[in-house]
Amino acid sequence: MIVDGRRINACLTLAVMHQGAEITTIEGLGQPDNLHPMQAAFIRHDGYQCGYCTPGQICSGVAVLAEIEAGIPSHVTADLTAQTTVTEAEIRERMSGNLCRCGAYSNIVEAMSEVAGLETGRRHA
């Protein structure tokens, strides 16, 4: 989930801890007839299998791209004085705490790369 623009683990927080905060869950990103671009990209790239982690992966993906756009560096950011750019390495590093027991990681990276406007070698119909 996203709280005041930052991604957090919903399982490690209580709602009462965020009274007055802006909270976004998967339901707040889009609806079946009006998907958020990240939700649509996950569908196009099969960024899910069992679906258990999908809401967290999508919310985190949205927040990760916002972090990069805001210039927040990660452990793989090469130049801390330059604007952070979206790369596959940045996506993988920032999403490394989101576990998928089915192993859809490469598809998740492809979906996020599409939303970020990166070209990827593999495309789904």
How would you sum up this structure, described in words?
This protein has 125 residues and is mainly alpha-helical. It has a domain at 30-116: [2Fe-2S]-binding domain (DNA polymerase, domain 1, Orthogonal Bundle), CATH 1.10.150.120. It contains 5 helices and 3 strands, in the order E-E-E-H-H-H-H-H. The chain has a 3-stranded antiparallel beta sheet. Strand 1 and strand 2 (6-7) form a beta hairpin. Helix 2 (37-44) crosses helix 5. The radius of gyration is 14 Å and the shape is globular. The model has no long low-confidence stretch (mean pLDDT 91). This is Aldehyde oxidoreductase iron-sulfur-binding subunit PaoA.
What radius of gyration results from the CA coordinates?
Answer: 14 Å
Annotation field: number of helices: 5
- For the record, the CATH class of the domain at 30-116 is Mainly Alpha
Approximate helicity band: 25-40%
CATH superfamily of the domain at 30-116: [2Fe-2S]-binding domain
The largest pleated sheet is described as:
3 strands, antiparallel
Protein name: Aldehyde oxidoreductase iron-sulfur-binding subunit PaoA
Pfam family, one: Fer2_2
Domain [2Fe-2S]-binding: 25-112
Organism: Methylobacterium cerastii
What's the arrangement of secondary structure elements?
Layout: E1 2-3, E2 6-7, E3 23-24, H1 26-29, H2 37-44, H3 54-69, H4 88-94, H5 105-116
Antiparallel strand pairs: 1-2, 1-3
Helix pairs in contact: 2-5
Features:
2Fe-2S-bd_dom_sf, 5% strand, 38% helix, mainly alpha, 125 residues, 3 strands, globular, single chain, DNA polymerase, domain 1, 2Fe-2S-bd, Aldehyde oxidoreductase iron-sulfur-binding subunit PaoA, Beta-grasp_dom_sf, 3-stranded antiparallel beta sheet
